Amino acid sequence: MQRLYTFVLILLLSACNQTNEPASELTVGQVMDDVITRLYEKVPSSKYDSIDDSFMLAFLNDEEKKILATRYMYFEVDVPVVVSLMRDRGQPIIPFWIAEAGFVKTDQVVKNAEGYVYDVWEKRYDAGKIELGINGFDKHRPVYFITVGPQDVTDKVNITNVYP
Known about the structure:
By secondary structure, the protein is an alpha+beta fold. Helices cover 29% and strands 28% of the residues.
């Protein structure tokens, strides 16, 4: 029951509008605004249709990549956890940060009534802050969703400081 509650909480929070980002650090929105401005300045409009993930990863600087890989969703946990990330199998390109962050694809899948099939990626985290990134550079929807469960099934996970 605790895992189901945690899943529903994270699912609902991931659907929220992201308007309360902290002002002390660059936000995903600020990075995207800066990148789009730079694209307009440096890339001819005739090349816009050819922009893809490879181009974007080469175009971004290291700080921008880090923000996009860690500031889309974050929260804190008080015990060691396993985060399972469900990524739509129909999305052709895996978001750049998933494997880099240490997520490993499992053999598990999740299917929903609408016919979407999600691959399950997992990562173990110690107690503390967990940071997750953007869904990618394409216009693919649906976005990924996550579940959070304790590594030790006798533990209760408390999730705090959730953004968004």
